[in-house]
Design a protein that fits this description.
Helices cover 38% and strands 18% of the residues. With 460 residues, the protein is α+β, with helices and mostly antiparallel strands. The chain has two domains: 8-128 and 394-447, no CATH class; 133-354, Transposase Inhibitor Protein From Tn5, Chain A, domain 1 (Alpha-Beta Complex), CATH 3.90.350.
Length: 460
Amino acid sequence: MDFAGGQLSSDGGSPLLAKTDQWMGLTERFAALFTDHRDPDATEHPVLDLVRQRVYGLALGYEDLNDHDELSRDPLLAAAVGKKDPTGESRVRERDRGRPMAGKSTLNRLELAVPPAERQDRYKKVVLDAERAERFFAEVFVAFPRREPETLVLDFDGTHDILYGKQEGRHFNAYYDEYGYLPLYVFCGDELLVAQLRPGCVDGPEGTVEILQWLVPMLRSRFPKVRLIVRADSAFARDEILAWCERHRVDYVIGLSKNSRLTAALAEEQAAAKAEWETTHETARVFRDFRYSTRESWSRERRVVGKAEHGDQGANPRFVVSSLPRRGRRGWEGQALYEDLYCARGEMENRIKEQQLYLFADRTSTSKLRANQIRLWFSSVAYTLLNAFRTLGLKGTELARARCDTIRLKLLKIGASVRVTVRRVWVSLASSFPLQGLFVAVWRRLETLRKRPVYEPMRC
C-alpha cells in the first residue's frame, strides 16, 4: 500500500456543500465581515477562499488547522472553494506548487488579528467585525425564504465548554468539576440564531436581555405578525428577563427550580400521583395550574404549572413559569404546556451537542477569548451550512433528520478521482458508492433552487 494514487479525494461530496453555499451566499456574506489589510498584489488567497476552506473543512470533519497543511493539496476541495487552478501548479513560489489552498499559518490569521489591525502590521491584518458577526446568524435566519410562521420559539441555553489550557476567561465550574467557558446559544427549531462565547465565571443567563433587545425587533421586522415565545431552563427564570418579555409582548415558558413553597403547593397532586403509581406500578403524573410569586426576587405574581410525578425512583416534582394563557385560541392547558411545549426544548440541547461533538465548537484551544469566539463562529457557519443542506437537499429522504456526522459519513466522505483539464474539473465518484441514487436526487434538487435568500438591513 502507498499514497501514490494520484489526484484522488476522500471528500467526493464536497460539491454538495459548495452548491448549497452558492445558493445561500453564506460564506460570501460571512467573509464580508472581515477587513483585509493585506496587499492585494501580494495576496494569493482572498478572504473568501480562506473562509470557505475553513468552513468546508469543518463540515467535512477536519477540526484542526494543522490538517490543512496536507489538505491544501486536495484538488476537489480547491475546486469547491473556488480556486481557478485546483492543481496549484500556477502558484508564485515553487515550494507552494501543488498546493492550491492555504496552509495552517495563513488560515490562522483569520482568528488572531485584533482591532485596530493596520496595513503596516506584519502578519495579523485580517480583522473580523465581532459586533456584526454576533448578529450574522439571525440575519441568515430572517433572510431565508419562508412563509411567515404563526409562532417562533426561541430556545436559550448555556452550556459548558471544557478547557485544558490556561485560556483567557477560563473559570472553574464546581458543577462540572472542570475549567471552562460558558457559551450561550439561541436556536429556533434546528436553526442557529446566536452563538456567544462567554467567560466561565459569568452567571448562566447573563446577556439574555441584551440579545432579546436586538433579536426581537429583527424578527418582527421580517415577520410582523409572528408570536414569539422564549423557552429556557430554570436558570433563566429571572425577573429582569420575565419582565422584559412582558413589557415587549414576548411570551415565555421557562423552567422553575423547586423549593419548599412550590413543593407544598403541589402536595395533594404528589400524593395522588403516588397513589396511582402504587396501583399501576407505572410512572404517574398529575398537573396543577396556579399563581405564584417569589418572596423577594420577582416583582409580580405569575402563572406556574407544576408536574407531580412519582415513579420507581420516587417523587420527581417539576415546575415551569409561563406568560401563556390557559384558555383561548392560543391557550395552553397545564399538561400540554409542560409536556408538549416545554419538554420540546430537549431537541435544542441535541443541536448544541451536534455542533460541539461533530462540528468542533469546543475546539477553543487558543490563548485569547476573542480568537476562540471566532473559532466558535466558524463552527456555527459550518453548522448553518450543513443544516441548510439537510433542509433543502434532504427533505423527504431517509436522511431528512440525520445528524451532521451521519450526513458527512454517508454523502460527503466519498472516494473520488479528480481530473483537471483547461475548461473543467472532472470528478468520478466510487463505483461502489451505495447511495448513488440519493446523491443524484439531492444534486438535482439543489440545482432547481431558485428563490435565494435576500439579505437586507434589519431594524434591531
